[in-house]
Amino acid sequence: MYAIQRLELEHENILAFTNYAQDLAISIMEGAEINRDQLKKMVAFIRTYCDGHHHKKEEDYLFKRMVEDLGDLAVKLVRQGMMVEHDLARKCVIDLDGALDAYDQDPSPKNRLEVISYLMAYVHLLRDHAQKENKVVYPFAVKHLSKEAMDWVDQETKAVEDREESKKIYRDFREFIKEIPQESQD
Ligand SMILES: [Fe+2]
Ligand SMILES: [Fe+2]
């Protein structure tokens, strides 16, 4: 259960991030300046923590064993559900990053709307995705994976945590928030 507990804890951080992103989208909608540094840091946080750390562990260990061990229903749930959504999230971040660059070149209302839209698209996608994993996918894995499979997932997850602990990646939301420029927290 170590791996599942880690993943659930990371969902809490990711959901806190989505709340932060939504608040920012509202302030931009109400006329606040688009702070490129702040939003580029958010893009980096998504890529490093939400995708590179969290989604990767799901794909490499938990989902891998679900697909290998649990048959058609798990294959459908993982490949046609969760993995597709991971790819959609990656596409959404590419689009958000592109919208920031476009706004930098031309700060038009259209490009401002694009930034807000992609930010909110990511918020909606990740909220829905984390909820499905918490309520359906993880409980399904806990119920059906063997003890041997779960032990393997735990062991591999622990190895990643130990390895990345020293890499100073954004380990949780509080660390991320500390690095956001002060003026953009107003
Ligand atoms: Fe996921
Ligand atoms: Fe997840």
UniProtKB/TrEMBL annotation:
InterPro entries in alphabetical order: Hemerythrin-like
Hemerythrin-like domain ranges (all copies): 4-141
One term under GO cellular component: plasma membrane
A matching Pfam family: Hemerythrin
Record-linked PANTHER family: BLL2471 PROTEIN-RELATED, HEMERYTHRIN-LIKE DOMAIN-CONTAINING PROTEIN
The protein's name in its UniProt record: Uncharacterized conserved protein
Protein species of origin: Urinicoccus massiliensis
